[in-house]
Structure formats: C-alpha cells, structure tokens
C-alpha cells in the first residue's frame, strides 16, 4: 500500500469502549464518509467486523479491524499511535463470500451471502434429516443430525472449529462441510471439498423435521433445499498488522491446548 496517509472512515459498535475509541481516533486522524474513504477502520469484535464487511462490501474498500469487543480473531490490537504507518504496512487478505440460495416450504427462493459459514440447523426437538449433494452428485443419502455447515478458510476457526471441523489454511482453495452433532452416520466427521464445488442439501421430512438456514446474520426458516457456492464475483479485502496476520492466526489456532 502507499506510504502516504490514506483517508479513513471510522465505524464502531455501540459498546462504550468502542465508542470512546472512535471519538479519540476521529479527533486524532480525522474522519470521512465510508464511500469517500481509502480504508474503513472497524472498532469492535468479530461480530461487528462481519457486519461491517457485509455493509460495505458494495464499496470494495479494504477494512482494518481494531479489537474493541469480545472476540477479536479478525481484529488487530488497539493502539492510537502510528495508525497511518500500520495501515500502509498492513498485509492484505482477499476473501470471497459464500452464496446461499434457499427454497422454502412455500416455494419462495432467497439468496444471502456469508463470509464465515452457512449453517443448517434443526428448528424442533427432532433431529434434521439431510441429503447431501456435491456438484449435483449425491454423496450422502441421509445425514441425521442437529445440522450441518459449510465454511470458508477464514470461517473455519469460528463455529466450524467449535463443532470439531477442520481448520483450513488461507489460500488452500478449499471449503469444509461439517456435521453438527451427527447421529447417523455417527462417525462421519465431514468432508473437505474444492472451493469450486457446489454443495446442495435437501431437507428430508421437512414438515416433521423443520430446518433453518443461516448465512452469517441472515436466517431463512422452514427450508426444503439449500445450495451453497463461493461467489467469485464479489470480494472483500481485510488488512492485518504483519506480525499478526490472519494466516499466522489460523496456523496458531491449531496448536492451542
């Protein structure tokens, strides 16, 4: 990136620490509107970073996260000094979102984008029954489970890791398909597929066993079919301090006791 000072738009979550830091950084470095900025600086936690990426994706502006929230895996350390230098020297990570296309029980079709993962979750006391296709070839006739998810490498350390899915290195051109509390087949731990794959779930016995589909923050209930694929037509750029870049964080996460 250029060594000249970029114009910055600061955005922040509603928490008191984030709002206090927002005022301090605006006073020190100025403020422009997001559409006029070279870089958007997001103050908060990972949830706010995902919200910011979704909100500003159409602007195609790089986003530098600063940790002023709870979980900060996607965020950089907070410090007020030397922000222009940090931005100029930051490493760039370009991500492509997942596109979720759902068909509901009433036939309505909807689309939503996910940066971390698309999750299918049972809505009732009964387990979900799913049929799994990859590139229109049936790979599993029946998966009985609490749900399943498809995640990107950037999202592989989030919900996916919590349900014992694999951590995917950045740049691996892979997606993870991970069951959530699988009952049958009990020992199935999921699959790793190329990021060019199109994954489709059919919801079996959907009237008796309703399922919702969630793409990051967008939920569609009572779905009967969900198709997931990477959308190469859209991208977003995250910025990280070189000593704490995202690739290193993903690698380090695999060695946490």
Description:
The protein has 257 residues and is an alpha+beta fold. The chain folds into two domains: 8-95 and 235-253, Rossmann fold (3-Layer(aba) Sandwich); 98-230, Tumour Suppressor Smad4 (Sandwich), CATH 2.60.200. Helix content is 17%, strand content 39%. The protein is built from five helices and 17 strands. It has helices spanning 16-29, 46-56, 83-89, 159-162, 246-253; strands at 8-12, 39-44, 63-67, 91-95, 98-104, 109-114, 117-122, 128-134, 137-145, 147-151, 174-180, 191-194, 199-204, 211-215, 218-220, 223-230, 236-240. It has a six-stranded antiparallel beta sheet, with no helix packed on it. A hairpin with a 2-residue loop joins β14 (211-215) and β15. The model has no long low-confidence stretch (mean pLDDT 93).
């Amino acid at each position: 990136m250029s060594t000249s000072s970029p114009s910055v738009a600061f955005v922040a979550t509603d928490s008191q620490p984030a709002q206090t830091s927002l005022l301090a950084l605006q006073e020190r470095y100025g403020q422009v509107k997001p559409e006029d900025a070279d870089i958007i600086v997001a103050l908060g936690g990972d949830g706010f970073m995902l919200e910011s990426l979704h909100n500003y994706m159409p602007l195609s502006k790089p986003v530098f996260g600063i940790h002023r929230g709870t979980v900060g895996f996607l965020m950089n350390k907070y410090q007020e000094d030397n922000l222009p230098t940090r931005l100029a020297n930051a490493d760039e990570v370009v991500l492509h979102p997942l596109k979720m296309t759902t068909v509901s029980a009433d036939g309505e079709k909807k689309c939503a984008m996910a940066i971390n993962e698309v999750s299918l979750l049972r809505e009732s006391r009964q387990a979900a029954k799913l049929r799994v296709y990859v590139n229109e070839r049936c790979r599993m006739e029946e998966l009985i489970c609490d749900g399943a998810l498809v995640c990107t490498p950037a999202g592989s350390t989030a919900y996916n890791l919590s349900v014992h899915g694999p951590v995917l290195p950045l740049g691996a051109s892979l997606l993870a398909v991970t069951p959530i509390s699988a009952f049958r087949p009990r020992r199935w731990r999921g699959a790793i597929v190329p990021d060019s794959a199109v994954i489709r779930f059919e919801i079996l016995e959907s009237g008796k066993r309703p399922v919702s589909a969630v793409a990051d923050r967008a939920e569609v209930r009572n779905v009967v079919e969900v198709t997931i694929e990477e959308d190469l037509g859209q991208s977003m750029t995250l910025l990280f301090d070189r000593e704490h870049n995202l690739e290193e964080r993903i690698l380090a996460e695999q060695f946490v006791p």
